[in-house]
Design brief:
The structure is a homodimer of 154-residue chains.
Chain A: H1 8-31, H2 39-50, E1 54-55, H3 56-63, H4 67-79, E2 83-87, E3 95-99, H5 101-119, H6 128-145
Antiparallel strand pairs in A: 1-3, 2-3
The structure holds a DNA duplex (30 and 30 nucleotides).
Chain lengths: 154, 154
DNA sequence: CAGGGATTAATCGTGTGCAACTAAATTGCT
DNA sequence: AGCAATTTAGTTGCACACGATTAATCCCTG
């Protein structure tokens, strides 16, 4: 079928995600300014505060980022003293990313700062669990469709 | 206050938006590949299919993008024959962005392609209106807080 | 144990995003 | 009219994001 009017709702949904993601990114950027961290750098550290060391590939599959994004990001985190990067001895293809002592010491300070900033918000009318659940449903649907059946290429 | 454990839910919410936005972006990238359009280019055209011409500033306030992003994006759209950019006669500070005839002709084809791709998805368990509404609530909250009271800088 | 396929990071190129700055034009105020 | 504040695009610099490619290493099978 496919009529010729745009799917307002789907476009709106995508645009809402797009805009919200940018706003959240900006919010975290502000919150993390004292530490000179970007949001992608922050979630990288979050993952490492859970498990360190990790290989680049492990990090990438947690964060859905490939080495083309991670390698330069990790180099910046290394330069600023948060992590070290070291080729694995067992398997020299892999690079182990390890938190520095400085990163371990700063952890609580970063958490506290983020929490302080989040305290300034009141998501009163929002049902967190349900919202996150719906977003996950949308993502699952998108995963199912990506790359598939889109081969009516011109 | 501000304990030292991360706010799992808020971080999860931000990460969900971040991930969903990337997935949607990717989905539209696939859908629009026949036209060599990116998602930001597509929403720019969407806005212009509603109202053309628009100034760069008007486009920017619709899309929440500044000239630093739009100027190069518009130059690419111009080079590919979708739009023209012309300094306004009345106010030479402004640049009028106008759809080309080619863009007007392609409109229905683009809509049809996007709709075909969206047809491949079934957002069964998802309440669209409610989801978009909740996202808007989150964005409103983020707008209210941005830049405000975040001045306990280190 | 040699050699080909698979895996892993790194690299390269393109395209956003955005803060900060610049340059030009307009507006407003006296 | 004349000049300062404002508005508007463009430019620059940095940081993602990702597809495509490359180089090194590992593994597996004959």
């Amino acid at each position: 079928m496919s009529n010729t009017t745009p799917r307002r709702l789907d476009d709106q949904l995508c645009f809402a995600f797009y805009s919200a993601s940018k706003k959240f990114n900006h919010f975290y950027q502000d919150a993390l300014r004292p530490f000179h961290l970007t949001y992608p750098q922050y979630i990288t550290l979050l993952a490492l505060w859970e498990t360190s060391p990790m290989t680049v590939r492990e990090l990438g599959s947690h964060l859905n980022l490939d080495s083309g994004t991670l390698t330069p990001l990790l180099k910046r985190l290394e330069k600023q003293g948060w992590i070290t990067r070291k080729r694995s001895d067992q398997d020299e293809r892999q690079v182990n990313v390890t938190l520095t002592d400085h990163a371990l010491e700063k952890r609580d300070e970063v958490y506290a700062r983020v929490n302080d900033c989040i305290d300034l918000m009141s998501f009163d009318g929002v049902d967190y669990d349900q919202l996150i659940d719906q977003i996950h449903q949308v993502m699952t649907e998108l995963d199912g469709i990506s790359h598939k059946d889109l081969i009516h290429e011109s």
